Amino acid sequence: MRGFYFVTDRRLSKKPDQDAVRDALDGGAAIIQYREKELPIEDRIPIARKLRLMCSGRAIFIVNDEVEVAQACDADGVHIGQDDMSLKTARYLLGRDKLIGVTVHDVAQAVAADEGGADYVAVSPVFATSTKGDAGAPVGLETLRKVKAAVKMPVAAIGGIGEGNVDSVIAAGADMACAVSGTAGAPDIKAAVKYFSSKWKR
């Protein structure tokens, strides 16, 4: 797993998730995460299925938090936080052939996820962010470096990442990075994603 990691945010993009994801794919996103907290599950599943089809053969498709939604759309995997379903339970439900990412805030959580069989971790938030209200205090580039050195799996960076600091995140070892406000909230999602994606193609 390597490259730009696009996370949907219907509130920021002001457009249907399908349109936002189409733009992100055209911009070169390597991973797409469907993150939706407000719609009922009976509405999320049909959308997830459409997004899954759009990503087929073009990008890895991940569902945020909801193992049930991931199973219903045959997503490539699921991403869970520290307060969500346990990694052990998620692995039991999804099996070995699906990807599981875990949000971590320090090295100890990253090592626990690595030893527990996660496929990647996302260090969050690297910088201060207003996109996710419960993200917590920024952990900084030094934590990102330490996590990268401590685990054997790919590491994503999320939280407050934009054009002005994405290079420093990559230099600190991030295999993937998310810039939710900078892409889902951009006037031109395709152009924004293309800019960030180009950082991994040099």
CATH class: Alpha Beta
Shape: globular
Alpha carbon gyration radius: 15 Å
Number of strand elements: 8
Q: Termini separation (Å)?
A: 16 Å
Structure description:
- The protein has about 200 residues and is of the alpha/beta class.
- The protein is globular.
- An eight-stranded parallel barrel has the order 1-2-3-4-5-6-7-8, surrounded by seven helices.
- It has one domain: Aldolase class I (TIM Barrel), CATH 3.20.20.
- Strand 6 (about 120-125), helix 7 (about 140-150) and strand 7 (about 155) form a beta-alpha-beta unit.
- The model has no long low-confidence stretch (mean pLDDT about 95).
- It has ten helices and eight strands.
- Helix 2 (about 15-25) crosses helix 10 (about 190-195) and helix 3 (about 40-55) packs across helix 4 (about 65-75).
